[in-house]
Amino acid sequence: MGVVGPNGGGKSTLVRLLNGLLKPDAGAARVYGRNPATEPFEVRRKVGMLFQNPDNGLVAPFVEDDVAFGLENLGVPREEMRVRVAQAMRAVGLSGYERREPHTLSGGEKQRVALAGILVLEPEVLILDEPTSMLDAAGRREVLEKVRYLRGEKTILHATHHLEELADADRVLVLNDGEVTADVTPDRLFANAGLLRENRLSLPPVLRLAADLGLPLHRTPEDLATEILAEIGDGAGVP
Amino acid sequence: MRLELRDVWHVYAPGNGFELPALRGVSLTVEDGEVLGVVGGTGSGKSTLVQHMNLLLAPTSGAVFVDGVDAGTLRKSELRRRVGLVFQFPEQGLFAPTVEEDVSYAPRQLGLAGDEVRGRVRGALESLDAAHLARRAPYTLSGGEKRRVAIAGVLAMSPEVLVLDEPTAGLDPVSRERLLELVTGLRSAGTSVVLVSHDLDEVAEVADRVCVLEEGRVRSIGDPAEVFYADPEVAPATVRVVAALGNICPGLGRPVRFGTTLQALRGLLEARG
Lengths: 239, 273
Fold this sequence. Notes:
Shape of chain A: globular
Shape of chain B: globular
CATH architecture of chain A: 3-Layer(aba) Sandwich
Structural class of chain B: alpha/beta
Oligomer: heterodimer
Radius of gyration of chain B: 20 Å
Largest sheet of chain B: 6 strands, mixed
């Protein structure tokens, strides 16, 4: 499920209520029947959270120690820890990085280390709070690819300003001024100019070009170019 | 003001095991009143580069010139008033109890009269659509609001060059657009702007020239159409669409901005469709 909306709309507040980082003033959250406000530690074993800036979360001198940090706190036996750390590092594509120092990594690599540190705890829910906003295009691709791989295996809540990251989501929750203003599929959201405008959302450039040209909402520049060629009757297509 | 970097090298932690040459001979200029976009992957040296523009970092070798004068010979306080640098996530530096006091902090250090300070603070907050926040405590603001207040704090110094390092990271699309409007507004008022960004599309919207950094070197610099069409792989989405249409539709020209790209593609569809 994607979570979108303007700055100050309530995205980060909402996701922080779900693992007890914030407590509601009224009402209650329930995660697998448990209340994160009163049982945060139980809930956090099921709900892993990835933040915007990986630099704020990486603490250990070596990558493998950082990934193992959560397990150490849980007192997991050494042998099991080794196995689980190796699995988590493989899942994010960082096998071989065990003895690297976090500060020598790129932004995308750091964010994947942070993701491994969460996966190693085997959470059932993954909360991503703008996990790519500090990354360049390559780093963003790396992280999103790993997240996509976890689909079906984990429940994922993904807060972002980049609508294109949610094109494959099952649902998108729109938050504005602290209220849910829509709960729709990405396709319906992308096609609804009024809903986008009211919630200070805008389509990424390729989708916007397609929408403004009255063409189907193709996601990549190459797909849009192919569509344009088809429209103007040039069947050759784009190589 | 014309800012020039001449063969600037910067090596972090020279001589020990962590030695890292972040800039490897960068030469470029920021012309008077232009918007220079600086793009490049993580670790390409963008942030290191911009911190040389007001000598927050000193070059390991090479030099920085302000209107032809070696910046190293200028008083630091004068240099930093004339070249305003806004860091990544500048909101982390907000510290005063109210927005107004935070934004007035820097102009007060210049020893300006009270009226002048108040005027500048009002002007800076207004140009960032943040005048209504003046009495609020920074910690009660949303992320986008904090960002605008932090930028106002540098703008209140009335810099001749404003350097923005990833100013739109984490901002919603409307806040992002407003910030880009601010950039074009400043340019019309004669301020030069250096805009560092991961977002090629936003750089394409506002930059007069663009500089692509790669591993601490200038990979290319110049007119955005020249730079992006020569290298569509590191170009904004608009350019990639047109580039993918390629030789088949030479009449499209080389549009870079969203509006001109849309217009060109509309023309194509109307003429042939």
